[in-house]
Write a structure and sequence with these properties.
4-stranded mixed β-sheet; about 15% strand; two-stranded antiparallel ribbon; Rossmann fold; 6 helices; alpha+beta
């Protein structure tokens, strides 16, 4: 289902279709910290047990190369260890901008984090939602991966949330398949993106404004790299093509 607000922002919420299966809560208490060591025997075969060991090691800790962020023109950017094509900085100034963008989207959504019909206080904003569930066992985990590549392991998520990924994804149909394949039966996926075709009701926004010129240059740069920044209007078609219902 897709909805477009008066601000031009579009949200798409799509459920999976298979029968529901019960979820198993993680164990109580924090997991003990362990130092990861390379086990050569884990790479001897490609059976399920050795694959599980590789996945466990892969998600255990970050390597220095992943957080070796380069500084360009006074701004900090993602490193190339994961082949990240994100075009924006990741420094404190950018974090402040993203916090503002988060607040704007929540306001545009009617002061809610999401529209998927989930249990109360179960939502996508990781830290914000986690703080609303103090009685739940520890269940917050961060992993850094390239979501355009095959996802590590096969997990079933009850809720997959994707927001502000325009200009970052090269193959949206492939991403939709990854999401569908890793969604639990009767789980939900929600996408919140924007339409960058800006306009003003009073006509003050025109092609002569600095914002319009910047946006035109930005759109051209993104198109040259094959990453569309204005994906909001296209989401409904993509989720339908991916067999979401």
């Amino acid at each position: 289902m897709a909805e477009e607000s008066e601000t031009g922002q579009l949200t798409t919420t799509a459920p999976a279709t298979a029968p529901a299966t019960p979820a198993v809560a993680p164990p109580l208490g924090p997991a003990p910290a362990e130092e990861v060591e390379v086990d050569d025997e884990a790479y001897a075969t490609d059976d399920n047990s050795s694959m599980d060991e590789r996945i466990s090691s892969y998600t255990a800790s970050l390597t220095l190369s992943v957080v070796d962020y380069p500084i360009e023109y006074g701004r900090r950017y993602h490193g190339s260890a994961l082949g990240v094509a994100y075009k924006f900085p990741n420094d404190e100034f950018e974090m402040d901008r993203l916090d503002l963008a988060h607040a704007m989207m929540v306001k545009a959504m009617g002061s809610v984090l999401f529209r998927a019909p989930l249990q109360k206080e179960k939502g996508p904003s990781r830290l914000e939602t986690f703080s609303k569930m103090p009685r739940h066992p520890p269940n917050l985990k961060f992993e850094i991966v390239d979501i355009e590549e095959p996802w590590v392991g096969h997990k079933e998520y009850d809720f997959i949330f994707c927001r502000y990924m325009g200009a970052s994804i090269k193959d949206w149909p492939k991403l939709m398949k990854n999401i569908y394949d890793n969604l639990a039966p009767r789980g939900w996926a929600e996408f919140q993106e924007v339409n960058t075709s800006f306009y003003s009701q009073d006509g003050t926004y025109s092609e002569e404004t600095a914002t319009s010129k910047w946006m035109t240059a930005f759109m051209e740069a993104c198109s040259a790299t094959g990453r569309d920044p204005s994906v909001g209007p296209k989401l409904e078609g993509w989720v339908r093509d991916a067999q979401f219902k």
